[in-house]
Automatic annotation (TrEMBL):
Full protein name: Uncharacterized protein
Source organism of this protein record: Robertmurraya kyonggiensis
Source organism, top-level taxon: Bacteria
Length: 386
């Protein structure tokens, strides 16, 4: 009796849009069916080694396409991807740490940070993440990076709301002062804190704080003052402000090559700034009031060599040496008797104006108002010296 050994096999025939699967038993087709290429590929995965599957998927290194399809399928099925994402990220981090690739860790972290939006997280989660990150920066060798980060956070302090800014700034100051050791005071840091605070504090507050460091002595002892001095003030930096009042009267004027006699002038206020024996500057305005008050209206000097901001054009001014403050009483007359030209004159013909005022008092009604009072004028000058 001839016994033939039974042989079972599967034959697969690939066509354009399907695959034909036939079960062959000892050469006799027993079953025949058509399946899709996708179903065929999935049925073959179980007999492939894991490395072979991964190598095939990554053969073209189309990571975007591969993972995009994966996430699209999850989204269509309505399934959560949180656990899968945690697994993928965890595996990636483990691999990077085992490889000890610092550059890869940096790129990985920067990629995550670029996608991080604090507004999509709770306040607790955001603060927790920041604290965990900031707890590692103590190992920085270059501390300037930490300072830059801290400065950036301070610039964004408006995130706290205006009602918390003062409280927040106070805590920062307290923490900085606590970090200073009592036995070895960081003078430079203390100086920086005080200077930054004094720039925004009220002047009276700064003086109050400094009061215990200032000797109880006279701040100013007036020297012999010139006649008609309407103000004498010593600034903290040593500069002096001295004002000389010149009543309305007539002066001889040198205009180009011509001389005009007894030319009427209005009442004038000269304001000099002095440091040591050097005259730094001079300002000149006119007034109508006989008695000066803070609200006294100021008027423009009607002739030449005085700018709109009341500064005089006086090239030789810095060459004068003032031995005493009293000598400033002669300076207005040095200006009035100096050579005149048309510089900064705002009229039509200065020569005709001088001609018409010879032997005449100046008509105050022709003066042009300045947009400031006597008090405001002094305030502007003092600010420029701060």
């Amino acid at each position: 009796m001839n016994t033939q050994k039974e042989v079972n096999e599967t034959r697969i025939t690939l066509r354009e849009h399907e695959a034909i699967v036939e079960n062959i038993n000892t050469g006799i087709p027993m079953n025949r069916r058509a399946i899709t290429p996708s179903d065929l590929a999935l049925s073959m995965l179980v007999i492939l080694e894991d490395e072979a599957v991964v190598q095939y998927l990554l053969r073209e290194k189309n990571f975007d396409d591969m993972f995009e399809n994966f996430f699209n399928v999850q989204h269509i099925n309505g399934e959560s991807m949180i656990e899968e994402m945690k697994t993928i990220l965890g595996m990636a981090l483990d691999y990077i740490q085992k490889a000890e690739d610092d550059e890869a860790v940096t790129e990985f972290f920067l990629t995550l940070v670029s996608k991080f939006d604090p507004t999509e997280f709770s306040e607790e989660e955001t603060i927790k993440a920041l604290r965990r990150f900031l707890s590692r920066i103590y190992t920085f060798e270059d501390r300037s990076h930490i300072q830059e980060l801290f400065t950036h956070l301070l610039e964004e302090i408006n995130l706290l709301g205006t009602e918390m800014v003062g409280q927040f700034a106070g805590k920062i100051m307290e923490q900085l002062l606590k970090s200073v050791k009592k036995n070895t005071l960081d003078i430079e840091m203390i100086h920086s804190l005080f200077k930054a605070t004094s720039l925004v504090a009220e002047r009276d507050w700064v003086l109050e704080v400094l009061e215990r460091h200032i000797p109880k002595k006279k701040v100013c002892s007036s020297p012999l003052l010139p006649k008609n001095c309407f103000i004498y003030q010593e600034m903290m930096d040593g500069a002096l402000i001295v004002g000389i009042e010149v009543d309305s009267q007539r002066f001889d004027i040198h205009y180009h090559r011509k001389q005009f006699e007894d030319v009427g002038h209005p009442k004038m206020l000269f304001l000099f700034t002095v440091r040591g024996q050097k005259v730094l500057g001079c300002q000149l305005v006119c007034v109508k009031d006989q008695v000066l008050t803070p609200d006294t209206q100021l008027y423009r000097y009607p002739f030449s060599n005085v700018f709109e901001d009341t500064r005089t054009c006086w090239p030789d001014l810095n060459s004068y040496q003032i031995k005493t403050v009293a000598h400033l009483g002669t300076m207005p007359f040095a200006f009035l008797h100096s050579q005149n030209n048309d510089h900064a004159f705002r009229g039509t013909n200065l020569g005709e104006m001088y001609q018409g005022l010879q032997g005449q008092d100046f008509d105050n009604e022709t003066l042009v108002k300045l947009d400031m009072t006597f008090e405001e004028w002094l305030g502007v000058l003092k600010k420029t010296l701060v």
